Amino acid sequence: MNSPEQITVLLAEDHVVVRDGLSSLLNVDGGFRILGEARTGRQVVEMAQALRPQVILMDIAMPVLNGLEATKHILANDPAAKVLILSAYSDDEYISRASAAGAVGFLEKQTSAEILLKAIREVAKGNSFYSPTIVKRQRLALNKSRNRNGFPVANGALLTPRELEVLQLVAEGSANRQIGDELGISIKTVEKHRQNLMDKLNIHDTAGLTRYALAAGIIENNVRLTIH
């Protein structure tokens, strides 16, 4: 009999050995229930819509439809779906594209079982999660672009203290009205600060701002992620 606390998961991985390994890991833990296993991007889109799992563990390199395009289709059908990427490709370009597609987390395939299980649990709770190695790499890159006061410098433009406050609240999942109430400013002013952040950072969505905040050490790696 399945425990009501079990997290429902849909696996999307075309390699049988890897898929079987993931399935065994989740089953042995006992805290997860696998609703299905997809071998192609098209399959995972169809299964996600039919099964509505709490977390979709998604590979990128899959036949018929790659994982990034599959993620876009899944979120178009169900904006509340939670996609966690698990891929052998972890360069910044792939991470950026996954974030733009709507994925709420990104893990490298060489990540430990402990981190993988933690990531699935965090994503199921509505949090974002990126591999510690990814966060560390991006944090090191950002640390090279800080001024003497420790503030991140983006595209040659310094983020102001107010922009940093807005960035943190956005990344923590606060809506514009909540940010305005918290900081004592109007919604229009909040929207202006958000636009300034996106322009300076060359980021065009909330997921990207959250990933930047993680890398910059502004928030921790289990912050609530809500798309507004």
What is the structure about, briefly put?
The chain has 228 residues and is an alpha/beta fold. Helix content is 50%, strand content 14%. It has a 6-stranded parallel beta sheet with strand order 2-1-3-4-5-6, with helices on both faces.
Task: List the main descriptive attributes of the protein structure presented here.
228 residues; alpha/beta; 6-stranded parallel sheet; two-stranded antiparallel sheet; elongated
Structure write-up:
The protein has ten helices and eight strands. It is an alpha/beta fold and 228 residues long. Strands 2-1-3-4-5-6 form a six-stranded parallel beta sheet, sandwiched between helices. α5 (113-124) links the parallel β5 and β6 (129-130). It starts with 6 loop residues before the first strand and ends in a 13-residue tail after the last helix. Residues 222-228 have low confidence and may be disordered.
Residue runs with pLDDT of under 50 for 5 or more positions: 222-228
**N to C succession of SSEs:** EHEHEHEHEHEHEEHHHH
Q: What is the CA-CA span between the terminal residues?
A: 38 Å
Please report the total strand number as a whole number. Answer: 8
Biggest sheet strand order reads: 2-1-3-4-5-6
**What gross morphology would you assign?**
elongated
Output mean pLDDT: 83
**What class, by secondary structure content?**
alpha/beta
Give the helix/strand layout.
Blueprint: E1 7-12, H1 16-29, E2 32-38, H2 41-51, E3 55-58, H3 67-77, E4 83-87, H4 92-101, E5 105-108, H5 113-124, E6 129-130, H6 132-143, E7 153-154, E8 157-158, H7 161-171, H8 176-183, H9 187-201, H10 206-215
Parallel strand pairs: 1-2, 1-3, 3-4, 4-5, 5-6
Antiparallel strand pairs: 7-8
Helix pairs in contact: 2-3, 6-10, 7-9, 7-10, 8-9
